[in-house]
Amino acid sequence: MSDVLLECHDIVKIFPGVRALDGVGLHLTAGSVHALLGENGAGKSTLIKVLTGVHTPHSGRLTWCGEEVQLRSPLEATRTGIGVVHQERNLIPGFSVAENITLQSPPSRRGLINRAAMTAPALTCLGELGLDIDPDRPVRELSVAQQQLVEIAKALYTESRVLLLDEPTASLSPQEAERLFEVIRRLKARGTCVVFVSHKLEEVFAVCDTVTVLRDGTSVLESAPLADHTQDDVVSLMVGRAHSATEMRPRKRDTAAAPVLSFDGVSTAAGHRDISLDVRPGEIVGLYGLVGAGRSELVKAMLGLDRVTGGEIRVHGEPVRIASPRQALHSFGIGYLTENRKEEGVFLEQPIVRNITVTVWKRLAKALGFVSSREEQEVSHDLVARLGIRISGLGQNAGELSGGNQQKVSLAKWLAADTRLLIVDEPTVGVDVRTKHAFHELLWELARDGLPILLISSDLAEMITLADRVVVMADHRIRGAVDNDRDYARMSGRIIRIIHDRAVSAVRPEGVQA
């Protein structure tokens, strides 16, 4: 058995009104990959913050190589040998790769930072990960996957023996994720313990050796061999019951109805050419493709965030040129649920009631622009109940919510505005199994009530679950479209063939120019 590096013994952490961790146990061994699983709000983020010195537990003990330790700051955790790569990267875009890697302890000479001496250790760390990146290159020029690996190189530079990876593949393509898995296996071989936090169970079972499952702040499975459990076992432990797909209520759509949104030969400054598609009332149209296919960029151009250089966009049959997301909402009833919920979806430092009603202040405003607090509360209360948002109160700041509940708050503000077309971009990235399923049911019911939805997702299972028609994009072009029969094996095969430009006989190209 490998040596135990870090152990948690009965860790308790309390916030006002919430017992976030309630007697959590964990032990991490050298040369292993350990899965830390649980729903949003189960306590994973709080435990990570305890392990990295951000939070001090109210009771319980941490031991490092058998000796009790108290981690009072992230710097103490780093010096102990504990590193973390957060889902939101902590790199300085204007600094070089070498400067970012050596940032916490830069080489110096006579009290001054020695920039020339940064290159050698940076190259060493990059080499250990098998990365061929110029250490003098600014980080802002790197891809998301490369930035993720530079974060790991930072942890190697500080000699982390335990490395926590929080949703490391959330923004990566399948090919980039596989490259990351190779790096994880390499770290495991050199004796590092990697803690892998993810909602993607197929990835967990591909790379992890042991597993801890948290539920409601307690460890319901503690440092157990993963091979002894199936995915269904793990999901059951996470949600407290056996998980099965809930039957969604039957939904009909009128395929002959006039489109709410139409693209006709649209080109953009981002590189799209000859894009044509329609979205009809009560229809969920999926835009599927690998990272870099141009799906989000197409929507942003439509919303005025980039230039449309050719073709025509029509809303309810009328040609439009939208200047901003604000105009899209107030003039055309278009809501956009962004994939970047923390920076664009919610105001983290503002209360939930303000986040939900920001889109309807103009409607609620009385004389002199005064907005009634009572009306704000009524609108927010109804939507919180409807969407099942777990909060302590409407005055709670959105930044205190789990990722899944933040996403629901972001959706609530568009529903408050009675949007007539909803664009949903990567709606369930980084949310747990139960929250994802609840979100799927919610989108399904909105479409059932007649709301047209344009869905962007890199999750093929999600796309096949929800979309009535899947439009496949690659390299800023539409390559084909498939009517969804919800046979996962058949649908996934058709979509993959389209992406790779192989047999496309299954494609129904109506309304789409490939």
Describe the 3D structure.
The chain has helices spanning 44-51, 74-80, 97-101, 119-128, 144-157, 174-189, 201-207, 231-239, 295-302, 325-332, 341-345, 352-357, 361-364, 373-387, 403-416, 433-448, 460-466, 488-499; strands at residues 4-15, 18-29, 33-37, 59-64, 67-69, 82-85, 108-109, 112-113, 162-166, 193-197, 210-215, 218-225, 261-268, 275-279, 284-288, 308-315, 318-320, 334-337, 421-425, 453-457, 469-474, 477-483. By secondary structure, it is α/β, with parallel strands linked by helices. Among the domains are: 4-239, Rossmann fold; 345-418, no CATH class. The strands form 5 sheets. The chain has a 6-stranded mixed β-sheet with strand order 6-9-10-3-11-12, with helices on both faces. Strand 16 and strand 17 (318-320) form a beta hairpin. Helix 4 packs across helix 5 and helix 14 (373-387) packs across helix 15 (403-416). The chain is globular. The N and C termini lie far apart (56 Å).
